[in-house]
Amino acid sequence: MSDRRKFLKFSMLGAAATFVGKNALASPDHDHYYETVRDEPVVVSTWNFGMEANAAAWEILKDGGHALDAVEAGVKVPEGNPDVSTVGLGGTPDRDGRVTLDSCIMDDKHRCGSVMCLEHIVHAVSVARLVMEKTPHIVLVGDGALQFALENGFKKENLLTPASKKAWQKWLQTSKYEPVNNIENKVPHHKKAPMPGSKTNHDTIGMLAMDANGNLSGACTTSGLAYKIHGRVGDSPVIGAGLYVDNEAGAATATGVGEEVIRAVGAHLIVELMRMGYSPERACKKAVERIIRYNPGEAQKIQVGFLAMNKYGEYGGYSLQPGFSYSVRTRDTNRIFHAPSIYKK
Ligand code: SD4
Q1: How far does residue 17's CA lie from ligand 1's centre (Å)?
Q2: What's the pLDDT tens digit per position in 150-187?
Q3: Does residue 21 form part of some domain?
């Protein structure tokens, strides 16, 4: 066991936490879905499709792999799945019919990389990781990001699948831009094409992991809000908004209408609240309340969901509207949780 693990164990005992089982711990600062996993890895990710992504991440975590490798491998699953209409291949395009991807990754040493408005590359998260590891920069956008990806051996592909194209062509009949809440958990395009003018919209996977050494990492990747203006970038690749990791405090990620998440610098806010002692769920709730405070009219209509994990591997989420779910994988747990929300229907 590393010194860090010993310290965490000691500090948790010192905090007079209550043991509920071998690896579980209950805290007075928690009212919903809660579990503490000590000396064990844990991975959480947004929405139901996080289950499959978690499975890939878990393959790395269970053998003692690093959280950074786990989150990259995890989010690559929906990126490569054409049936997920909101991430990577098969992602919903912008209003010009172009699939533009936003993605970022961050590790336990405050190293981070991001790509914004990247076209033609399925695994945007891997390009983001290369930006982090091979350049003196943090963010590459658009053509520059594509050029960098191609120079580093990524293959150019058409990300607009026939199903996404058909849905976009139907959307063009009305061209009404209106994000749909909880679209991530709805039926994929190819199974049921959206009605003309339908509000096919947001979908993102945000993943947070703690590895067996107690180190945190996160990744967030998306095709962004459906039918956005070409060039629009949401919160997902913005370090501090859609994702933030601080190994001393915790990690957080976001999904939903990115404009509101950016305004509140959501993920960073949550990490700072956890540093102050808020549980992950309470910290997420506070951030959701901040979103309401900054833009109350809009907040009533849209969805934003936050997911967080603290340095003890405790996790929790909260959303504006009901319907936000997140997936959790530990050695003992492999399931979907439904996050509490401010609004009830
Ligand atoms: C964005 N936050 O581009 C992303 C979209 C999203 O669930 O999360 N959808 O604003």
Answers
A1: 36
A2: 999 999 999 998 888 998 999 899 887 777 676 656 54
A3: yes
Mutate which of 118, 202, 265 for ligand 1 pocket (most atoms within 8 A of beta carbon) = 202
- Catalytic-role residue among 204, 221, 253, 255: 204
256 pocket-lining for ligand 1 (C-beta < 6 Å): yes
Atom number in ligand 1 closest to CA 228 = 3
Tokens 């061209």 locate to: 175
Domain that holds residue 12: 1-37
- Whether 3 and 144 map to the same domain: the answer is no
DSSP string, 121-171: -S-HHHHHHHHHHHSS-SEEEHHHHHHHHHHTTPPP-----HHHHHHHHHH
The answer to whether 98 and 231 are in contact (CB under 8 A) is no
pTM of the model: 0.85
Cα–ligand 1 centroid distance for 218 (angstroms): 16
